[in-house]
Amino acid sequence: xxxxxxxxxxxxxxxxxEAEAFxxxxxxxxxxxxxxxxxxxxxTQLWTLRKAFEGTGIGVAAQNMHWEDQGAxxxxxxxxxxxxxxxxxxxxxxSERREYFAETDETVNKKVRKALSCGILPILCCGESLKxxxxxxxxxxxxxxxxxxxxxxxxxDAKKVTVAYEPIWAIGTGRTASxxxxxxxxxxxxxxxxELYGEDVSEEITIQYGGSVKPANATELMSQxxxxxxxxxxxxxxxxxxxxxxxx
Length: 248
Ligand code: PGA
Description:
Layout: E1 5-9, H1 16-29, E2 36-40, H2 43-52, E3 59-62, H3 79-84, E4 89-92, H4 95-100, H5 105-117, E5 121-126, H6 130-134, H7 138-149, H8 155-158, E6 162-165, H9 179-197, H10 199-202, E7 206-210, H11 215-222, E8 229-232, H12 239-246
Helix pairs in contact: 1-2, 7-9, 11-12
The structure holds 2-phosphoglycolic acid (PGA).
C-alpha cells in the first residue's frame, strides 16, 4: 500500500530567516497523518529546517547534489554532505536543472545511484515539453527518461525512488495537467516500471504529479489511481496553502 507523499519545492526562494518563520508557522497548524511530508529548500536553509522540524516527522530535501562523494568540483555539494546534516531526500533531474544547467539522463542516473548508496531518497523528476506533447510523443519521451534514469538500479533500490511526473508546460504556468492527463502519464510510468522490475515492485513505487498543484486542484489530482502525491512549487511557499494540499 503506497502512502501519499507531498513534497514542497521552494526552488531559489526563502532566506534562512524566512525558512525559520515558515517552519514555526507550519508546525503550529500541522498535525501528523498518514501523508508523508517534506520540504526541499535551498542548501543554506537545510540545516535550519532540520533543526526546526526535529521530532515532527516532516522530511527535509535538497534540490540537487553531485554524483561524487568529494573532489575538485567547485560549487557542488555531495550526498554524504547532505546525509551528515540529516537530509532525507534529494530532488534529482528537475526540468529546470535539465534546461538551465545542462543535466542529462546520464548525470541524473549517476546522481540517483549515488543518493541511494548514501541513504538519501531520490525524488526523480521527469516530464515532457509542450512541443513534445503537441507532437504526440510525450509517452515515448517520458518512457525513455525513466529507462535511462533507472539504468543499473536494482529492484530493492528502485522501490526507494519517488518519481515526480512534471510536464514542463504545467510548471509555474498556472496551467495544470488535467487529472486525466496526469493519471494517464503516471499509469504509463508505472507500466514502464513494471517492465523494468515487475508488478510487485512497480506497485510499491511512489509517483507524484507536479506542475501548478494548488489547494483548489489537489484533491482531484490525488484521487487518481496512479498519483500518490505531489511535488509542489509555488503553493509550498505559504504554510496555509501547503497545509491545505497536505490535507488534500
Ligand atoms: P509549480 O512548480 O508548482 O510552481 O508549478 C512545481 C515544480 O517545479 O516542482
